[in-house]
Design goal:
By secondary structure, the protein is an alpha/beta fold. 37% of the residues lie in helices and 23% in strands.
Length: 238
């Protein structure tokens, strides 16, 4: 963890500013060549992801970045084609993409919208069969129902571990968590006069660390260590 003085990205004031920040972060992440699989998330309840996805696809095309927009199911893909005729030729669902045959590797950016744990196997197959980079927008690869047993551990070591976070914005009780590539993770506290940057982290902070920092406690204190031990012991029992 580093001090709040290292925090350089500002917290967006509204959804449009957050989208612009997300688009810039994704474009910078892809240009860096640091990874082939990037995740971007706006963690707002009841967010309509379709218009966000369409605007991100158009932002990539505006930067001369060919894109393929892929949805987990046929219904979502059909809605996207209906709402964005300009993107209909590059919009499909997972099954269509898996059936698609080509004599040359497809190196376009694969923009995957909202895959969930139930799509895990299909999505992994889609990513493994794609030659270009992949951006996952508002997806979730880990299933709380799986818990921290052997299946979850194997997934974290495998497919889940191949992703880097390009963008993350999450409102919290009394604060907010932001990561906008290439900056570090940043934690903000909500004060009476607005959001105040507290700390930055090289990796995503866990919930216990976030709670401790927001409460003005030492995240490395005994209380947090005991919680970490509890999680470890729970994992051994699964």
């Amino acid at each position: 963890m580093t001090s709040s003085e290292d925090t350089t990205s500002s917290l967006p004031a509204d959804l449009l500013m957050a989208e612009a920040q997300l688009q810039n972060a994704v474009i910078a992440a892809l240009a860096s060549g640091a990874a082939r699989r990037w995740s971007a998330n706006l963690r707002f309840e009841n967010l309509r992801v379709l218009p966000v996805a369409l605007r991100l696809a158009r932002a990539l095309l505006a930067k001369d970045c060919p894109v393929l927009v892929v949805w987990p199911d046929a219904g979502a893909a059909a809605l996207a084609r209906r709402d964005a005729d300009d993107l209909s030729a590059v919009t499909m669902d997972f099954n269509q993409l898996k059936r698609k045959e080509s004599s040359t590797p497809d190196t376009r950016v694969l923009l995957a919208i909202g895959p969930q744990p139930s799509d895990y196997d299909d999505f992994e197959a889609v990513c493994d069969g794609h030659a270009g980079p992949v951006v996952m927008l508002n997806g979730r690869l880990e299933d709380a129902a799986v818990g921290i047993g052997s299946v979850a551990r194997e997934r974290r070591k495998g497919f889940v571990a191949t992703w880097l976070q390009a963008y993350w914005l999450q409102p919290l009780e009394g604060g907010a968590l932001l990561r906008s590539y290439p900056e570090n993770w940043q934690l903000f506290r909500l004060d009476p006069d607005g959001y105040r940057p507290l700390s930055s982290f090289e990796t995503r902070p866990d919930p216990e660390t976030i709670s401790a920092v927001l409460a003005g406690e030492d995240p490395d204190g005994l209380k947090q260590q005991l919680k970490s031990v509890d999680r470890f012991l729970d994992g051994l029992q699964n």
